[in-house]
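thoughts on these tokens:
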Amino acid sequence: MINCSDDDSSTETEKEAVAEYVTETKTNLLGEWVLISSSINNEIIASSEFEVLKDSRANFNDDDTYSLVYKTGTNSAAGSSISTNTQEGTYTIEGLNKVTFFDSSSEIELIDDTLKVTSVITDASGAEQTRVDIFVRSDNEALDQPEGSNTDEVEVEEETETPADTNTYDGTAVIAKLLGKWELTGATDSCLMKNTIDFQSDSVFEFIQHKTTFGRSDLLKYNIGVSYPMPAEFAASVTKGNETVDFDTNADCSFIKTSLVEYEVTDEKTVELKKSTSAKLVLENDTTLTLIYTYLNVDNEETTIEFTYVKS
């Protein structure tokens, strides 16, 4: 004899499970997704291309619609050439991480906590290529700054325009004291202690900074998109403006940034950075130099930290 009530109960349980999976998947899907990696024919694209492409976004809405907004082009000193391509469509959730996307020229897959978008593109010669883009949610922990990042790395070049130069102070005597190499003192971190400031002329100094570790946010900042999750071993060198950054997971200090910084002396003690309003130097005496850096902490509060350098 077949017990129909048992079958009905089992079916109802399965429906409830599917409904829970659909709800969970939709909760995970809704919101903004950020592009973190892009490859063409299995080769990670160049940082010059990724600089613009990394601003691409995917958005998923509660009404079962989505949009993919791609940014392509280049940025250069001569100007920008950027185009925007938007794909819009609908989606249906069928189970846990099982989503069908409609109205897209690309193949879209939700894989664990990533969104994989596979597209067929054409290169300059007309040959077809396969591009794979990986997105993660904008609130993904992989995008967070590593702990202490704000204090371990000083930004000495801002992208915004700094005020026009109106300095009339004759800093010749101060510059004579500054010329040469200065070494960080008083830090407990072994990599941080390797930081140096080298005044090479009356207008430029070399600033070398070291960090023990780096995160994906550091890579994205310098237009590097790598596979997800992060590879255990990785090395790259990239130049952006007057800064060169070396990443190497096998090095004692896996992040080294070398900056050529333009400066001017504005009085007998103060050294202003021409491309930064958040950092400045104060000559305390002939052998002591203080770097003062103001930044926004995790609570978006303005915070000031000081680093002491001594003449080597």
